[in-house]
UniProtKB/TrEMBL annotation:
SUPFAM superfamilies: NAD(P)-binding Rossmann-fold domains
NAD-dependent epimerase/dehydratase domain span: 3-222
Family the entry assigns: Belongs to the NAD(P)-dependent epimerase/dehydratase family. SDR39U1 subfamily.
Matches recorded under PANTHER family: EPIMERASE FAMILY PROTEIN SDR39U1, SUGAR NUCLEOTIDE EPIMERASE RELATED
Domain called DUF1731: residue spans: 273-306
NCBIfam families documented for this protein: yfcH
Protein name: Uncharacterized protein (TIGR01777 family)
Amino acid sequence: MKIVIPGGTGQVGTVLKRALSAAGHHVVVLSRHPRQQGEVHWDGATLGSWAGEIDGSDVVVNLAGRSVNCRYTPANLREMRDSRVHSTRVVGEAIAAAVWPPRVWLQMSTATVYAHRYDAPNDEATGEIGGTEPDAPGYWSYSVDIAKAWEREQETAGTPHTRKVALRAAMVMSPDRGGVFDVLLRLARLGLGGPVAGGAQYVSWIHDQDFVRAVGFLLARDDITGPVNLAAPAPLPHRDFMRALRTAWGMPVGLPATRWMAEAGAFVLRSDTELLLKSRRVVPGRLLDAGFTFRRPDWPAAADDLVRRLRSREMR
């Protein structure tokens, strides 16, 4: 198959391109800064010659969007929203204009659309959409608003011949440098991987190989449309998540951090505490109902595998 991945140069795109290429598919990445063969320039906002890559393709997987690992300033929030909404809109325009449109459009979304909660898991059918939680900082609602606008842009796109799926993805854990696992493991290796603000907040995640397998599963299932949670079925509290990561690496100590310490650290790292403090208790209801089987459903075993792969790579 020919698979086009707008915004495919980041961590998730790298994981997906590597796996799809290894499976024998022809993968084209749309990038603002193409650097290698198989990458084609686009600006993520306006139609151009790049649209010819979509015309005649089999699949589009749109991953475009500014990284959320930044300070949530008004300017950054605006760029996060615009980069997602505008790129989704123009991908829809390219598909609508295609003589031979792709049969499937997988659109990246985020599990952050769900409410900050501890009491029950969020699936697609009964999960609570966030933005109005009384115990969450008001500005967290911007992330939810961005997610809703992102999904709405795909939903309203006029692409009647293309099946559309919104990927409400949790954190994709891979041993690649620069990814979220790399950052969290670095903290654990330094002895700083203890619970943050008590550690009761839930962490939702998905192993990189299960993410790739879930994408393949959704491509093959013509009966699935709309939002789908891409998250392992066993989210767990942050304190347990980090303990399992420390155990996988062999680090017995993990210094805890208070909320104000997390805020100070996020300021220094030019990031935001929402990424650490929001309780994301998300489960993959539709995937499980459709018969998808996770190979790495539990975090301790997944962390062991990721550490083993990382160490194997470092020894080369």
